[in-house]
Specification:
Layout lengths: L15 H7 L9 E8 L3 H15 L5 E5 L7 H6 L7 E4 L7 H11 L2 E7 L6 H14 L2 E8 L3 H4 L14
Parallel strand pairs: 1-5, 2-3, 2-4, 4-5
Helix pairs in contact: 4-5
Length: 169
């Protein structure tokens, strides 16, 4: 798994710690949007990073929403991952063009502690801003999952230089 400049940005609006240190009882809104870029040939790495957070968020009274383009969550996987089956909602077969709009609507409601959606392209500044505002409004976390294919040939330099030697021919 790797991150790029865009993928590494996250937005937090306030921390609960700050509200406790101020001593007031006003509700401080928090929201987070993170773009997670992962290699399709290493899905375990992403699970290792996200599962502890998802398990913790599963202890809240709110839902965990998965917006998946094709995959269907396995009941066995959800249980073996330590996620509360009764709090996991999934919308599958979602058109890729509708993912971000669906995430924005879901984040805004406040019914979900986390909304996870798959999006093939890097987020634009405007898309990130809209998601961040919705996450703040709903006091939720949103993960935009962006898979990339690993091409082992892409990592090697492409050189057209060939060294010919009479010693080896």
């Amino acid at each position: 798994m790797y991150t790029s400049g865009y993928a590494n940005r996250s937005t937090t609006f306030a921390s609960a710690h700050n509200s406790l240190t101020r001593g007031d009882n006003t509700r401080v809104a928090t929201g987070l949007i993170s773009e997670v870029v992962y290699r399709e040939d290493q899905p375990m790495m992403t699970q290792l990073l996200l599962l502890p957070l998802l398990q913790q968020l599963g202890q809240q009274s709110r839902w965990l929403l998965w917006l998946t383009p094709q995959q269907k969550l396995s009941r066995e996987w959800v249980q073996s991952a330590g996620l509360p089956l009764a709090k996991v909602m999934q919308i599958s077969q979602l058109s890729p063009g509708l993912t971000l709009e669906s995430m924005i609507r879901a984040l805004r409601t406040g019914n979900y502690s986390v909304v996870i959606g798959w999006h093939a392209e890097e987020l634009t500044e405007e898309e990130h801003h809209r998601l961040a505002m919705a996450a703040e409004e709903g006091n939720a976390i949103g993960f935009v999952m962006r898979p990339v294919r690993h091409d082992p040939l892409a990592a090697r330099p492409h050189s057209g230089i060939k060294i010919h030697s009479n010693l080896y021919h």
